[in-house]
Design goal:
mainly beta; 11-stranded mixed β-sheet; 43% strand
Length: 847
């Protein structure tokens, strides 16, 4: 499902996209030159234009790039010791080439070459012997070697745009934004003129203690561009830092763009990589071996590049360059390169001194793209004991004057002075946000991406729910809105009113929230008090499921969609979130539910009596505890979206139903527990695991039992059972397990056609155990409310000894956005109106 983070980022990209259509009058040719026998890069190769001046030389990784006119159709490639080749170019856009060179063995027999140059082997291979020494010394050279470490860090993040043809730059639409195009960067990527649109700088003091483990970062200076109210700059900063995570070469796995890559010095690296010694060099008096490495299987999530290993007995990595093959399925990431430099510090150990991470993002292989760069430099290393006072407080703390540091302070703190292009980026952004045309453009973009139209101190929406339809209401019309921070940073209001033409009834909702910490009620850490009232329709069991029935897309449903409720819900909520990502909330809830559609509330005290209940009312107080250690999320202006990492998220809730309080008809105790955890299983992807369990104690009618969340729409929902009917199963005790494994193209990358489409595989399974105690089962307790029926056939059931089970196989990353799942239901196939097999669509954005 597309999460709100990508809707907000979509505003940013929509503005960017207005300046990226069309084609330039030149084309960029990039590629790699490979030895056809050893399959290793060839450096110092001459690549020249035929019948024209100009060319390039390949670097140490065999890479080259050159920009040329449209009329050039052929390249001449030559290198000492290799047979020259001529490469024909296809007409069109930019092109990526892989050129294989054959060695000049004109006097040698082909048989001799095969005998001497056979299969790559680890045995008796000096390169492998050296890399095993590097692996054996990781505990000495890695960042965990020192018990205490403190250092200063300077970080700079940039985002730049590619391709600006003249008819776009000079268009009337962008006429007032023309100054943005007059600030190109021609240094970052040779042969390209890029336009910077985002710049952020951070200077911090960092402390790392191993025992007991504690890390702290103190931001002493922070500066970034500001695009105004339409984009949450803190959220964009958090998202970019999540994508461009710190690189620890000494870990077995390295997270890149939310995907786990196996390090070239991982414990299993000799089984996954091929290593070649290329040269012996000396720098600053230290002798090093230059090594090239590449994946044994080009389609695996592995790097290729170079390592410089010291020969001083440390067997430490002095330099590293990491790239990936173009065969890797990385969705929007077309290419990236990481350069790491290490310096000798306290105790003679080598530590990371600087890193530079550059990546190209684009929706299609040859479409306009966005370049992102994160560079850091570290200095002032110290291995002295770190005082408890320095480690106290938040893991990440910011000095009060960090964002107001003077230019003179910044000049002293920057490890490298800003270029003129970077300086103008700050100035241009400030000029941009003062243009009325910019605010008008971003307002329209917000309507398209977030569904709300700004109207001063209020936002009108969500537009996607203004019209919908269902069997109870027929055509439903709705209008709503919410206040924003222009009105108040303390008080927030949300309201809507709706009307159904078929039932001719009004529905409405009103919510009032008071922010105790005077921050937005969507911003971390949450601390607010809220009152809300709702009078509306919904499907039974869908209270906590992503919007289904009251949106236009959710109106399309399979099977019998006649089970509905009229709900009156009054809530009082207090929520307090702590800096360590532990939160608690106290709640009071009044709930009156009236049956609608085919749902009926019937009692049959005897075979000759039938009693109908018009509604069921409950009142409860609740306590909810949530713990999400090391939680990361994108913080939007009006939402928050988790950025999944390897740490679990645990939620526990207790609710007490009180008979007689606010009209409540029943006493009960309800418990709910949820555990979510992502497991990385490099190189075959990752697994999302969810355990959900609950228990309701008391004698209750089925509307107050646990109605398991179902999904009858044609859109896949992760939090519901996609082939279960609404109100099909109820329980008063249950436990369910959901498992989704994403292969990241592990198999499809080995199939040429699918590899080119960049499809990825996903499998999922949902298993639900549960049941109803005798006192709550109308088949065993004659005085209990009956389960609903239709045409004399039951449509609601209690889970028996057999669990409900469904599983799916799917393809995601279709057109970089969509996911399709083929789902099969395995149990309770005799129930009426069920679907045993179904195809479901959803949005899926991932790297």
């Amino acid at each position: 499902m597309l999460i709100p983070f990508y809707r907000s980022v979509g505003i940013f990209l929509l503005f960017i996209a207005l300046a990226q259509a069309g084609e330039s009058q030149s084309r960029l040719i990039r590629g790699t030159v490979i030895d056809s026998l050893d399959r290793i890069p060839v450096e110092n190769v001459s690549i020249r234009f035929k019948n024209a001046a100009g060319g390039a030389m390949s670097d140490a990784e065999g890479r080259f790039s050159l920009r040329m006119g449209r009329g050039i159709t052929e390249l001449l490639v030559s290198a000492t010791g290799y047979q020259p080749v001529s490469v024909k170019l296809e007409p069109g856009d930019d092109e990526e080439l892989t050129i294989f060179l054959n060695r000049s063995y004109s006097t040698l027999k082909e048989l001799m070459i095969r005998a001497k140059r056979g299969r790559y082997r680890n045995k008796n291979n000096p390169a492998v012997a050296l890399i095993r020494q590097v692996i054996a010394h990781k505990s000495r050279n890695g960042p965990d070697a020192l018990a205490n470490l403190s250092y200063k860090e300077y970080e700079k993040i940039r985002v730049l745009l590619d391709r600006f043809p003249p008819f776009i730059v000079n268009s009337r639409v962008l006429k007032q934004f023309h100054f943005l195009f007059e600030n190109p960067d021609t240094v970052l990527v040779p042969g390209k003129s890029l336009i910077p649109v985002y710049l952020e700088e951070v200077v911090s003091e960092n402390y790392d203690r191993k025992q007991p483990p504690k890390k702290k970062k103190v931001v002493v200076a922070h500066k970034r561009v500001n695009f105004g109210e339409y984009l949450d700059m803190k959220g964009i900063s958090a998202a970019l830092n999540r994508l461009y995570m710190d690189i620890n070469l000494y870990d077995n796995t390295i997270p890149i763009f939310t995907i786990q890559f196996t390090s070239p010095i991982a414990d299993l690296a000799p089984e996954l990589y091929r290593f070649f010694i290329r040269d012996t060099v000396e720098e600053d008096g230290v002798k090093m071996v230059k090594m090239y490495f590449s994946p044994r299987n080009p389609e695996d999530l592995l790097f290729h590049g170079t390592l410089f290993v010291t020969l001083d007995g440390n067997y430490a990595v002095r330099k590293a360059s990491l790239e990936v093959s173009k065969h890797i399925n990385l969705n929007y990431v077309r290419e990236f390169k990481i350069n790491l430099d290490f310096a000798q510090g306290p105790g003679g150990r080598y530590h990371l001194a600087s890193s530079d991470f550059i990546a190209l993002f684009s929706p299609l292989p040859k479409s306009p793209g966005i370049f992102g760069e994160r560079s850091i430099s570290l200095s002032s290393f110290n291995d002295s004991l770190i005082s408890s006072q320095k480690l106290a407080g938040r893991d990440i703390d910011t000095l009060t004057d960090a964002t107001t540091q003077t230019d003179s302070i910044w000049r002293n703190e920057r490890s490298v002075p800003l270029s003129e292009t970077d300086k103008r980026t700050y100035v241009n952004t400030d000029s941009l946000v003062h243009l009325r045309s910019y605010h008008r453009l971003m307002d329209y973009a917000t309507v398209l991406t977030a569904g709300y139209k700004s109207a001063g101190k209020f936002d009108i929406g969500p537009i996607g729910s203004f019209y919908s339809f269902n069997p109870v209401e027929g055509s439903r019309f709705m209008v709503g809105g919410r206040s924003n921070t222009k009105l108040s940073t303390r008080f927030y209001s949300t309201a809507y009113v709706a009307y159904g033409l078929k039932d001719q009834r009004w529905k409405y909702s009103l919510s009032e929230t008071y922010s105790i910490n005077n921050l937005s009620i969507y911003s971390f850490p949450l601390h607010y008090f809220q009152l809300s009232y709702l009078h509306d329709t919904r499907n039974p069991g869908q209270e906590n499921v992503f919007a289904q029935g009251n949106s236009f897309l959710g109106s399309f449903a399979r099977g019998d969609n006649s089970k509905w409720l009229y709900d009156d819900i009054f809530r009082v909520t207090y929520i307090h979130e702590l800096d360590n990502h532990f939160s608690f909330s106290l709640g009071l809830k009044y709930w009156n539910q009236q049956p609608a559609g085919s749902v009926t509330y019937l009692y049959t005290p005897s075979s000759s009596e039938v009693d109908t209940a018009r509604s069921v009312t409950s009142s409860e107080v609740s306590l909810t505890l949530r713990w999400a250690p090391h939680e990361q999320f994108y913080q939007g202006p009006t939402f928050r979206s988790d950025i999944v990492n390897r740490y679990p998220i645990l939620t526990f809730q207790f609710a007490r139903g009180i008979k007689g309080f606010l009209g409540g008809q029943y006493n009960y105790d309800a418990f709910h527990f949820n555990l979510y955890k992502r497991f990385y299983v490099s190189p075959i992807g990752y697994t999302d695991f969810t355990l959900d369990a609950g228990l309701v104690g008391g004698t209750l009618p089925f509307p107050l039992l646990i109605i398991h969340p179902a999904n009858q729409s044609y859109f896949y929902t992760e939090s519901a059972y996609n082939l279960m009917n609404y109100e099909e199963f109820v329980s008063d005790h249950y436990a369910g397990v959901n498992i989704d494994h994403f292969f990241n193209g592990f198999f499809f990358n080995k199939i040429p056609f699918l590899k080119k489409l960049r499809f990825r595989e996903v499998i999922a399974a949902k298993v639900l155990y549960g049941g109803v105690r005798d006192e709550n089962n109308p088949d065993l307790n004659q005085t209990q409310m009956k389960f609903p029926t239709r045409n004399g056939q039951p449509t609601t059931f209690a889970l028996g000894t057999l669990p409900y089970a469904e599983a799916s196989v799917g393809i995601y990353n279709i057109l970089s956005i969509f996911r399709v799942d083929l789902i099969k239901r395995f149990t309770y196939l005799g129930h009426p109106d069920i679907s045993g097999l179904g195809l479901r669509l959803s949005g899926n954005f991932s790297f």
